Amino acid sequence: MEAVHILLVEDNEGDVVLTLDAFEESKILTNISVTKNGEEALDFLFQRGKHQNAQRPDLILLDINLPIYNGHDIILPKIETRG
Fold it and tell me: Response regulatory domain: which residues (predicted)?
């Protein structure tokens, strides 16, 4: 069975530890990458900068309250309105 690649986007270290522990206990074969803010998550997803060789995730666990760009900024496109 192939490992599921998960991108965990979380700025709270305690929540990162709890999530990693939960997956370890679940016995699900995973490869988990962690980013700490919205900007780093976007760099990971678009394979920019230090994440240029990042593997595409099968699943994204996304915190909504993040520094720089919040979770909504990552998943919802900005819609410009014209007056």
Answer: 5-83
Are 71 and 62 a contacting pair, CB within 8 Å?
Answer: yes
**Per-residue pLDDT for 30 more than 60?**
yes
- Determine if the pTM surpasses 0.85: yes
Dihedral sign for Cα atoms in the order 48, 38, 27, 58: negative
Are the beta carbons of 41 and 72 closer than 8 angstroms?
Answer: no
Domain boundaries defined on the chain = 4-75
Report whether 9 contacts 35 (CB < 8 A).
Answer: yes
- Mean pLDDT calculated for residue range 45-51: 95
- Helix H or strand E segment including 23: helix 13-26
66 exposure class (CB count in 10 Å sphere: 0-12, 13-18, 19+): buried
